[in-house]
Write a structure and sequence with these properties.
Blueprint lengths: L1 E4 L1 E2 L2 H4 L3 E4 L22 E9 L7 E8 L5 E7 L3 E8 L5 E11 L4 E4 L4 E2 L3 E2 L4 E9 L7 E12 L2
Parallel strand pairs: 1-13, 2-8
Antiparallel strand pairs: 3-9, 4-12, 5-13, 6-9, 6-12, 7-8, 7-10, 7-11
């Protein structure tokens, strides 16, 4: 089993995987350019509210990751506290490249946009109850979510 340690979420560290959704100072209106990045197959903008009643406690064992081939996916916190963000690149065979796995702890006011095709675990509440707005652009054929059950679990240590 591979073990990684979650570090505080920063825009610079998360940049290879997406964007941190938070205000960084100037200008007053901070654009979030990649929130609705999508392929031509994705035509339906969707918004949902995710509620998490029970937080996870560290260490967290990850056995499944997901990716979205047609759209970026954004999580914006509405209520709650810190969240665990887990991401990794893609191997030559299309599966998650666990050697590139990174874990971050987002503050209560930090959201994330996972870029299209980035392997990730859904945002995971470390304090609950928590609520998140989830934004995506989806296809009409339901091919939006790909999952991979990992051959070996990934263990994430959270301070």
């Amino acid at each position: 089993m591979m073990t990684i340690t979650a570090v505080p979420l920063t825009a610079e560290a998360f940049a290879p995987f997406g964007d941190v959704v938070t205000h960084r100072g100037e200008p007053p209106l901070m654009p979030c350019a990649d929130t609705f990045e999508h392929t031509a197959a994705a035509t339906r903008v969707t918004m949902a509210v995710l509620r998490v009643e029970a937080p996870v406690r560290g260490p967290v064992e990850i056995t499944r990751l997901e990716r979205h081939p047609h759209s970026a996916q954004t999580f914006i916190p509405l209520k709650g506290g810190r969240s665990l963000i887990v991401v990794c690149g893609t191997a030559a065979d299309g599966r998650p490249l666990l050697a590139s796995a990174r874990a971050f702890v987002a503050g209560s006011t930090q959201g994330v946009t996972y870029r299209r095709d980035v392997w990730h675990r859904s945002v995971t509440a470390l304090e609950a109850p928590s609520e998140y707005v989830v934004l995506m652009v989806q296809t009409e054929d339901g091919s939006d979510n790909l999952f991979d059950d990992l051959d070996h679990p990934l263990l994430v240590e959270v301070d």
